[in-house]
Structures are given as C-alpha cells and as structure tokens.
Amino acid sequence: MKKIKKILAKAVPLWMVILITINSTMIMGIAQYYLMRAELRRNLSELAKTTKSPEDLVTILKQEVLPQDGYTTSLKWKDLGKQLVESGAIDKKKYEEIFTSTSDGADHMKYLNEASEDNIRIDEKNSRFMVNTFWALGLVQKSKVLDEGPMKTGGTPTENFASTGGWTLGAKPVMEIYSSRELLPLNSFQQDLVKKIAENVFRPCCGNSTAFPDCNHGMAALGYIEWAIYNGLPEEQIYKDLLAFNVFWFPQNYVEMAVYFDKNGTKWKNVDPKLALGSEYSSAQGAQRIKQSVQSVPGLQIQGGGCGV
Fold this sequence. Notes:
Layout: H1 2-9, H2 14-50, H3 54-65, E1 71-78, H4 80-86, H5 92-99, E2 116-122, H6 127-140, H7 144-148, H8 150-153, H9 162-165, H10 174-177, H11 188-198, H12 216-230, H13 235-249, H14 251-263, H15 273-277, H16 279-282, H17 284-294
Antiparallel strand pairs: 1-2
Helix pairs in contact: 3-14, 6-12, 11-12, 12-13, 13-14, 14-17
C-alpha cells in the first residue's frame, strides 16, 4: 500500500499526459466516425424504402446518367482542333456562325485556334460541338474502317451517306476530305484495334456499328476511338468514354437504359460500358426494346439529341 501511494505521489511527466490525451481523443474520434457511418447507412436505407415514387427514382437516375458537371476524359485537346482546320475538314468561319451565337460550345472555339492542355469534356451545353468536331476527325483521318469497310463496299455511293453528304462544315468538298489525311499516325496494329472497338460500339439512331459510320454520331465515335488509341488509352477506358459521349448525344435513350438496368437490379454506375454500347442495348433495335419495357414508368420524357450538324 505504501508503494502504491509513493508511485501516485510522483509527478507524471508532461509528455505522458499529452500522449494519454491524444490517444484518448483518437479513440473517441474513431468511435464517433464508425457510429456516424452506421447512422448514415441506416438513413440511406430508410430513404431507399420511402422513395417509392417512380418519378423520384427517374429523377435520381437522370442525375446519375447526365451529371450537371458533365464528363471529363483523361485526354487533352492538344492541337487536334488546329489540325482539323488546317486539313480543311473544318471551316472555322462556318463553325463560328454556329457556335459563337449560342451557348452550345461557344467557349470551345479556342480549340480550333491554338493548342491546349485542357482535358476533353462533354456536357449538355457542348455536346453539339463535340459531335461535330469528332465527326470531322472521323471523316478526314486515314482509316481502314473508311477505306475497306461498308462505307466503301456496301453498294451505296460513299458520298450519299448522312455522315458524308450531311457534312457541310468543311472547307473542301466532302469526298476530298474523306479518309484523306494521316493526322494521327496509326500503325497496322492500331488500325485493326480501331476496327475491333468500332465493331462493338452502336448508337440508338440506327442498327449499324461504328465500323459502319454512316451517320454523324457513328463518324464522331470513330474519330474519338482513333484519337484515344493514338494517345494510348486502354480499351476499357475508351468504352467508358464513348458511353459517356453517347449519353449526352442520346440522353433519352440512356436514361431509359438506366431505368431498365435498375429494374433488373443493376445500378447505372455498375453497368459494363462495353455491354451497354453493344447491339443488344445501344442499337436502334436494342433501344426500342428497352423503351417498350420501361414505357409505363412515368417521368421518363426528356429532351433528346438530333443527327444534324
């Protein structure tokens, strides 16, 4: 007993007091963190139970599919825009007439004038600028897809497709532009990889894959695939980026797709981009099948995109 009193009577060093205090605070902080996280999970669980309105669920899915901040890729613009102007694929004056008079990509005109280290991004405001710019790239870039695929071998004159005859923003006649410049030097392996990915990517406006880019969205997707492969982007990321592009080009179809997947137990963030871009879901036939399966869900009507310049 005397020994215990003697120990207690000794002064406790200041460093030990501080250490004990810090440890106690850390333990309390960790405990509070896990308690708060458990409470948050309970709240979210209760919210999911009480959010029974289909309109509310569709609203939530719209925000997930079409984020207000848009979608930013890991790729830079570099001098891509300048090259498109210099090649004649884009007539800058025609672009200015369309884009400087609206908020639809007006601030993007700088990419046609100078090289930029800005990341390529897409949102609801600039989606038209994006589809047109990558449409131009898909048209002008020397490509096996254009030279050896259905655009040349399908029997229809090449200049009569929507992606060729519909291109009115070039500085040269469209068939002088078509597959005319190796803006992006791609070797044989890379050209084959472009074709392979293109064959797996569809769009809801028709039944063709990007390997048959007979409309503006198909040609734009081809252009982005080429730019991505030229910059060394992995296949998995290319599919993810293209799905984001399609979302902003065809918002109605992809909100419907998100509702479809959600009804079948898969959240939009967990959907495999390659699967979603395949013919089963992203072709015109696939999109129609999905539309029919979710048409009874209220609140799905939103403004869609178009196929013009």
